[in-house]
Design the sequence.
């Protein structure tokens, strides 16, 4: 079915053609006519199948069919809520492309950047507002937004927003919106628990579902490499020697883990960028732009930060840490094989992660293919490297507890139970407090001076304690 048969506005059809799209995806073919017809809708489809266009195109069509009377003050008619800044930016990019021939104003609202431009955009009036719940709620509390004329509400990645703890914020936002509106919820997954909550937000919604709920895209080849945890970094470097791994997205469970992976890859000559919550918004946007443009070959990300990554051409997704939650796995590997393209998903699985793999296999009702990396030495030994995290640099590898001689000191509160013995007086405790600025603290005898202010210092101290030269 071509886009022309879906009842879209001619100006939108022109923008779709200019964007290079010829045929709608299954979720678009199924959802667009239902949304145009009116009524609440729940859309469920695998990641990468075009859900953003499935709600954007029909809403734009309805806006053009009922324009605001000339001379009337512009008010927000559409509110789209999304869980992450990256997804907000991605939705805005798509809306701008589809509405390029329409006289609409669009505003985006999210944290991590200054409030003033967002306040100005809301106060000036925007037809469409795309926002993260937290920042939007803050600005609504400052009376910057006017949703009195709101007609359409969209909850994108609805399951993830609720999983991430946005439910209280969403409830507070919805309580301030007009009751008469069209509410759309779109997601790759929608658990029974989450689905039960839709009754709070929607009225007799129509369900549009493409494919099996929560199952990964069929165009993605899924492989499992069983490898000890200490060899994961070496295995990743080995696999990246393959030139077919041109555009690789690596998932880490933690922010520190993502930084560590990126640092090791950079040391090995692999161009790399990171995407996680500790990065500023400008850093995150720059990382995405560099990844899209090919300046960097590998993007290392955490689950939350990677939400909304919509990059064409990702050849491989690597689960460096296997996720505990099945839906996270589905979303991760959905970053490749998008829009019917072919992609590979590789999971590194250490023995302690095996139960999570079995849970996933039971959920999708099929086993994942186990594979051995050709030419990789699974029996290699990796030299010990002291932890160089900033919070660990000032800690000695071994915290040597010195026993107090008998009769000296009692409980830590000071002295013996009778109040006599080796306990320090109040004056002594006061003298041993942290020195004020500009004073140097006396170093107790018998303790090595702390040299671990840098990775090299950490190694020097480690060698001294272990007797190595």
Sequence:
């Amino acid at each position: 079915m071509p886009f022309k048969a879906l009842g879209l506005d001619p100006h939108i059809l022109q923008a779709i053609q200019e964007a290079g799209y010829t045929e709608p995806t299954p979720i678009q073919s199924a959802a667009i006519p239902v949304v145009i017809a009116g009524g609440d809708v729940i859309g469920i489809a695998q990641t990468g199948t075009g859900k953003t266009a499935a709600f954007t195109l029909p809403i734009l069509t309805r806006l053009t069919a009922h324009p605001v009377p000339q001379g009337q003050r512009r008010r927000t008619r559409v509110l789209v809520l999304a869980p992450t800044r990256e997804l907000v930016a991605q939705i805005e990019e798509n809306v701008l492309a589809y509405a390029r021939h329409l006289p609409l104003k669009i505003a985006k609202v999210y944290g991590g950047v200054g409030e003033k431009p967002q306040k100005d955009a809301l106060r000036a009036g925007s037809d469409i507002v795309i926002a993260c719940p937290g920042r939007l709620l803050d600005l609504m509390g400052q009376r910057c937004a006017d949703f009195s004329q709101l007609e359409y509400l969209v909850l994108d990645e609805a399951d993830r927003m609720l999983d991430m703890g946005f439910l209280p914020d969403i409830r507070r936002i919805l309580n301030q919106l007009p009751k008469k509106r069209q509410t759309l919820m779109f997601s790759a997954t929608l658990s029974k628990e989450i689905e039960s909550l839709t009754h709070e937000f929607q009225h007799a919604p129509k369900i549009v579902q493409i494919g099996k709920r929560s199952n990964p895209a069929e165009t993605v080849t899924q492989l499992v490499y069983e490898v000890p945890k200490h060899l994961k970094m070496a295995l990743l470097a080995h696999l990246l020697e393959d030139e077919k791994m041109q555009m690789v997205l690596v998932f880490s469970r933690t922010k520190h883990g993502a930084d560590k992976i990126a640092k090791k890859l950079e040391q090995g000559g692999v161009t790399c960028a990171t995407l996680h919550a500790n990065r500023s918004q400008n850093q995150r946007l720059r990382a995405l732009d560099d990844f899209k443009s090919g300046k960097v070959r590998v993007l290392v990300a955490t689950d939350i930060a990677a939400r909304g990554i919509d990059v064409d051409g990702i050849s491989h997704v690597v689960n460096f840490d296997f996720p505990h939650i099945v839906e996270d796995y589905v979303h991760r590997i959905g970053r490749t094989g998008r829009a019917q393209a072919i992609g590979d998903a590789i999971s590194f699985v250490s023995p302690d992660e095996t139960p999570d793999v079995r849970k996933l296999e039971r959920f999708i009702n099929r086993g994942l293919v186990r594979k051995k990396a050709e030419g990789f030495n699974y029996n290699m030994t990796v030299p010990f490297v002291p932890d160089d995290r900033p919070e660990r640099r000032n800690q000695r590898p071994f915290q040597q507890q010195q026993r107090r001689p008998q009769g000296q000191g009692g409980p830590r509160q000071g002295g013996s139970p009778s109040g006599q013995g080796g306990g320090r007086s109040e004056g002594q405790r006061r003298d041993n407090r942290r020195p004020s600025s500009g004073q140097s603290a006396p170093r107790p005898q018998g303790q090595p001076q702390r040299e671990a202010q840098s990775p090299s210092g950490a190694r020097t101290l480690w060698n001294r304690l272990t007797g190595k030269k």
In short: Residues 414 and 426 are 10 Å apart (CA to CA). The two ends are 73 Å apart (CA to CA). The chain has three domains: 3-209, 220-370, 384-400+448-469. The first helix runs from residue 10 to 18.
